[in-house]
Amino acid sequence: MTKPKVLISDKMDPNAAKIFEERGCDVDVKPGMTPEELKEVIGQYDGLAIRSATKATKDILDAATNLKVIGRAGIGVDNVDIPAASAQGIVVMNTPFGNSITTAEHAIAMMMAVARQIPEANERTQKGEWPKSKFMGVEVTGKTLGLIGAGNIGSIVASRAQGLKMRVVAYDPFLTEERAVEMGVEKADLETVITRADFITLHTPLTDETRNILSRERLEKTKKGVRIINCARGGLVDEAALKDLLESGHIAGAALDVFAEEPAKDSPLFGTPNFICTPHLGASTTEAQVNVALQVAEQMSDYLLTGGVTNALNVPSLSAEEAPKLKPYMALAEKLGSLVGQLAHGSLPKISVEVEGAAAKLDQRPITSAVLAGLMKRYSSSVNMVNAPFLAKERGIQISEVRREREGVYHTLIRVTVETSQGDRSVAGSLFGSGMPRLVNIFGIGIEADMDGDMLYIVNDDKPGFIGRIGSLLGENGINIGTFHLGRREAGGEAVLLLSVDQRIPEDVIAKATALEGVKLVKSLAF
């Protein structure tokens, strides 16, 4: 088996390369490449490990013909074109927890620095001045901290602030009442947070919804004397408005670790009174750099070697421990999706994935993605679990999931139903023996059949002599039958025949089979 090949294109702790090698990957470490140099070599690699310097643009990804996974050592993935990666079936991962404590601590440090004007006081003292009377700070004890974003980092900041005896009021559209109680914070809307807070700190990703979340209009609504801290992403705060309000004295101080444009070499904020900044140091501690490098190497190795998916941004996560358990279910799901995709006619506006029994106790998202991977092969040969949902969404296909924990006739069952112009069409499968996928129902007809290799699907009238006729036809044309599976609605009614054969059946033989007495449909299948 060929070893997966990984490129580390940014400066990273050397232990990351060691982990890739120890886990069984070949690794090249080439930091500092130009985009042209990266584009020239990226087609050789299965994995790309990056930090913030490498830009995985669409142009680069178009040349990444073998790439399966991009791992970002850190949280922000602004430097990765995720839609382009998804369209090409490339998993994009980050490491959201490796530098959480470091970033949270930096936010607290920046809050303390802006509260006591430490940078300017330090600078003037070292110049030989003694400007004690010039610096009148404020205590944080008893003050209200407004938290915008209460995820992993935000929750750590809240905990540290509570240790400083601050009250914390938080806005996050995903924050539940139960989680707010658990964190010990007051859940509020954004307007409440910005009008009540003495300090506001941001801990949210940069998206279309969060861009300029602290706009000029919102900054003007803040309490006079508020102090703003942003150690999350540049672009969350209107920097021009921030400068104006600092100069007017409405905002008492601001501390930024991130800017809308980086590197920030000539920001208009530079030199503004009561403004302090650092050059994107939120994750810059020895511990954090080691943690994220090791974490990204472990995650990427898991995916390339076992199929485990952790902290992915464009595909459901699937731990290395879960992957072996889910693997047979996903194999069954993909075959069912492929079957219904090959047999259904016309557009498929809706698809339903139903899991029952043992399958219902598992994470259904990877199963659904596997169904879509099989189904979307009718549209594209280069489809996998990553880009299949993207392709389905692109075609306007509505996807629903149903979970039934009770067992039916089978201990586990996956049923795939598609809406067609002729009505709903459904196929179902189960796992037999040691996890072997088997078809158990096709369009309402019970049948037990393998789904493997080249097959022939026939719908016919249940009449004596038909099996002999189809067997003779195939034999006369040199086609050997591997397995033979039968099902019917009722005696003398509509019957289904599934044959596995040793080679793809030529079109002229399909035509001869279609012309046989009692035949309604003949279709060649491939799995």
Q: What keyword list fits this structure?
A:
17 helices, elongated, Rossmann fold, 527 residues, single chain, 7-stranded parallel beta sheet, 60s Ribosomal Protein L30, Chain: A
Q: What global shape is seen?
A: elongated
What CATH architecture label of the largest domain applies? 3-Layer(aba) Sandwich
Q: Mean pLDDT across all residues, rounded?
A: 92
CATH superfamily of the largest domain: NAD(P)-binding Rossmann-like Domain
- Counted by DSSP, the helix tally is 17
Distance between the first and last residues' Cα: 23 Å
- How much of the polypeptide forms β-strand, as a percent range? 15-25%
Radius of gyration: 30 Å
**Can you tell me the residue ranges where pLDDT is under 50 for at least 5 consecutive residues?**
none
Name the helicity range: 25-40%
The top level CATH class name of the largest domain: Alpha Beta
CATH topology title of the largest domain: Rossmann fold
Write down the oligomeric state: single chain
Structural domain count: 4
Tell me the number of strands: 22
Backbone structural class: alpha/beta
Placed side by side, the strands forming the largest sheet appear as 8-7-6-9-10-11-12
